[in-house]
């Protein structure tokens, strides 16, 4: 194994070989990016992914240029450094946000917080106030926000700043799960002024190797369990 180049995880390899993938999906493997010396061995995952994506831009540009007529670019939450390719090829660009609408609201608002708050967020005396969200207790903040001097925070902030460049954001949630936050992402004057791209709930999306149970099957299964033995999260 070459320590200078990232290697696919077993879960990624399993997914790409799964028989459950949609028919007609054309998977293009990019050559591993050489990231030697670009981050320390103990770098956080946010740093690793962001640097790998950045260094993979030339290979992605070449791969897309060989396609007949690529029409839309959809990237994950760490893929915004590929946006210039979409502009070059006149493609609309979207972010597939695999987490919740609440986290999306936090990240859309993060550049504003970064300017407004002096010092570390963990030293604030009051919970973080995010439009469309319940106040976030300091002890419940996501790990990258715990240290603003760390590279992982700087990379998360870098990605968050670039979300405004997208034509839209696909969120792994639905209207019934987070109505207040989704409405805020669409209509709150603070978030609109950022500006927040159009938000499209497309979830919740789950991966399952077996067919999902129907509602009646779920209830029948629950009826067979001992009282107070099942926790629904």
Report a brief summary of the structure.
With 233 residues, the chain is of the alpha/beta class. The chain has helices at 10-16, 45-55, 57-65, 83-88, 101-116, 151-162, 179-187, 189-193, 215-223, and strands at residues 73-75, 93-97, 168-171, 198-201.
Record the SSE blueprint.
Layout: H1 10-16, H2 45-55, H3 57-65, E1 73-75, H4 83-88, E2 93-97, H5 101-116, H6 151-162, E3 168-171, H7 179-187, H8 189-193, E4 198-201, H9 215-223
Parallel strand pairs: 1-2, 2-3, 3-4
The tally of beta strands, per DSSP, is: 4
Kindly report the average pLDDT value.
Answer: 88
Summarize the helix and strand pattern as letters.
HHHEHEHHEHHEH
Report the radius of gyration as a whole number of Å: 20 Å
Number of helices: 9
Shape: globular
Could you walk me through the main structural features you see in this protein, from its secondary elements to its overall organization?
This protein is an alpha/beta fold and 233 residues long. The chain has one domain (35-206): Glycogen Phosphorylase B (Rossmann fold, 3-Layer(aba) Sandwich). It contains nine helices and four strands, in the order αααβαβααβααβα. It has helices at 10-16, 45-55, 57-65, 83-88, 101-116, 151-162, 179-187, 189-193, 215-223; strands at residues 73-75, 93-97, 168-171, 198-201. Strands 1-2-3-4 form a four-stranded parallel β-sheet. Helix 5 crosses helix 6. The model has no long low-confidence stretch (mean pLDDT 88).
């Amino acid at each position: 194994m070459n320590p200078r180049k990232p290697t696919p995880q077993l879960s990624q390899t399993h997914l790409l070989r799964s028989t459950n993938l949609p028919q007609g999906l054309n998977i293009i493997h990019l050559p591993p990016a050489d990231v030697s010396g670009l981050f320390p061995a103990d770098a956080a995952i946010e740093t690793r992914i962001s640097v790998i994506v950045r260094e993979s831009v030339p290979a992605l540009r070449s791969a897309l240029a060989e396609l007949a007529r690529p029409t839309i670019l959809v990237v994950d939450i760490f893929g915004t450094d590929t946006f210039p390719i979409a502009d070059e090829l006149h493609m609309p660009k979207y972010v597939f946000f695999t987490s919740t609408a609440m986290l999306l609201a936090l990240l859309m608002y993060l550049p504003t917080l970064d300017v407004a708050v002096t010092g570390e967020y963990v030293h604030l005396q009051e919970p973080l106030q995010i439009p469309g969200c319940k106040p976030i207790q300091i002890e419940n903040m996501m790990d990258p926000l715990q240290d603003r001097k760390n590279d992982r925070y700087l990379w998360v902030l870098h990605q968050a700043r670039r979300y405004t460049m997208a034509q839209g954001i696909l969120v792994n949630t639905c209207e019934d799960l987070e109505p207040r936050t989704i409405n805020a992402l669409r209509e709150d004057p603070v978030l609109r002024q950022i500006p927040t791209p159009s938000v499209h709930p497309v979830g919740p999306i789950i991966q399952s190797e077996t067919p999902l149970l129907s509602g009646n099957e779920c209830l029948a299964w629950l009826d067979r369990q001992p009282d107070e033995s099942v926790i629904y999260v």
